[in-house]
Structure formats: C-alpha cells, structure tokens
Amino acid sequence: GAGVSQSPRYKVAKRGQDVALRCDPISGHVSLFWYQQALGQGPEFLTYFQNEAQLDKSGLPSDRFFAERPEGSVSTLKIQRTQQEDSAVYLCASSLEGVGSGANVLTFGAGSRLTVL
Amino acid sequence: KQEVTQIPAALSVPEGENLVLNCSFTDSAIYNLQWFRQDPGKGLTSLLLIQSSQREQTSGRLNASLDKSSGRSTLYIAASQPGDSATYLCAVGPGDSNYQLIWGAGTKLIIKP
User: For chain B, which has fewer Cβ within 10 Å, the N-terminal or C-terminal residue?
Assistant: First the structure.
C-alpha cells in the first residue's frame, strides 16, 4: 500500500481482556518496528522484525506482550490480560532496508490508541 | 544510558518568525539523529535524518544541525506558517544499533496567524 496502515485506530478494553493490534507495512519493506507512546512522551521501542524474523524484542515490557510477522508482511501485536498501564498509542513503522544497510528512513502508521479501563 | 531531552516542551510564536527547536543527548556515540513531526491522529512524519558523520541537513524551510561533541541538535524553521503547528520530536540512533531509536518527549509548536 501507499503507507503504513494500523487497525483498529481506537480500542477500549476492560482490564484483563486480550487485545490484538494489526500493522500493514508498506509493501516490500523489510524492516518493521513497534513502539509504545504514552501521553506526552516520546515513543519507546518495543520490538523489531526483519522480514519474518523477530530480531529484537528487548523492549516488550512483559511476557503479556507478544508480536509476530509470520509471512514477513503484516504484523500483529498482542497484549494479554491488559492492565491500565498498557494504555498508550501503539505505533508501527516500516523501512525499506534491513538493519545495517545504512540510513533507515522510517514510515509510521497513524497508531492504535489503546485505553484500558 | 542514552537520554534525549527537548526544551522547551511547548513554544508559541507569531506567523512568519524564524525559530529554533533544541534537542540534547547525553552519549555522543550515535549512529544518526532524526527529526519528526507528529500531528494529532496522523502519526509521525520523518523530516530530516542526519548521519553521525554529517553536520547538517536541509529540506525546504527546515535545517537540522548536529554537534556530536556537545550532544546537541537544532531544527531551524524559517518563515514559520500556521501549518507548521505540530509536535516536533528528535530521535537518536544509538552507536550500537541503527534502529532502536531513543526519543525525546517533543516540543509542541504553535504558530499563531
């Protein structure tokens, strides 16, 4: 597609529910990133995929967070047993090249705003 | 641990003025530095990317500079317009990775018509 598409744009969940957030990167982009952005803060890195391989998941805050990109295109971020502190905007970004290929200009999606009640 | 700071948190200026946004970082071992703008409900847009070997980058009315030794970057906006109103964030690519960006909290810029 022309840009990075994320869905849903808004999600309200009750504490304890599981949620799944979807990211459609730009077609052909090798790298895909997930970030978490709390209100009034900059994004914080969650995880990185190069094609279907999850090369870095060091930013995932707990084992309740899980991400996958099984065919190297669409990615899903799943949060199990949501807590109030999970409320944030979840941003997905993609770039054409993989890590180590030089400058990585990131294209971001509009984000998925999660509110946990 | 790398920390990125942006001051001020908010800035309001009249239309037509030139302005400078500041970004400072604590560890000079960086791979690159990027400036983004964030519009409500529209995600982040990359504005300029400066490699660690570069001193500045320009795009239209925007000019970004990088001084690694002092841990500072500035984003200069010439002849500001109301459409420039947004939150501007800088992000540092650490020396050991070019993708695990570390972000400032942003400067919210309002250009008054």
Answer: N
The 10s digit of each residue's pLDDT in B60-81 is 999 999 999 999 999 999 999 9
| Inter-chain contacts counted by CB atoms under 8 A, chains A and B | 59
CA–CA min distance B64, chain A (Å):
15
Angle at B103 between CA B97 and CA B108, to 5 degrees: 155
Nearest to A43 among B45, B93, B103 (CB): B103
Cα of B17 to nearest chain A Cα, Å: 26
Contact call for A42 and B98, based on CB within 8 A: no
Question: 């999606």: which residue's tokens?
Answer: A109
Per-residue model confidence as pLDDT tens digits over B11-63: 999 999 999 999 999 999 898 899 999 998 778 999 999 989 999 999 999 99
Cα dihedral sign, A51-A52-A58-A63: positive
Question: Do strands B62-67 and B56-59 pair parallel, antiparallel, or not at all (unpaired)?
Answer: antiparallel
For residue B41, give how far its alpha carbon lies from the nearest alpha carbon of chain A (Å).
6
> Pairing mode, if any, of strands A88-95 and A107-108?
antiparallel
Cβ contact B49–A33 (<8 Å) = no
CA distances from B38 to A7, A96, A109, B56 (A): 18, 21, 11, 21
pLDDT over 90 for what percent of chain A? 85
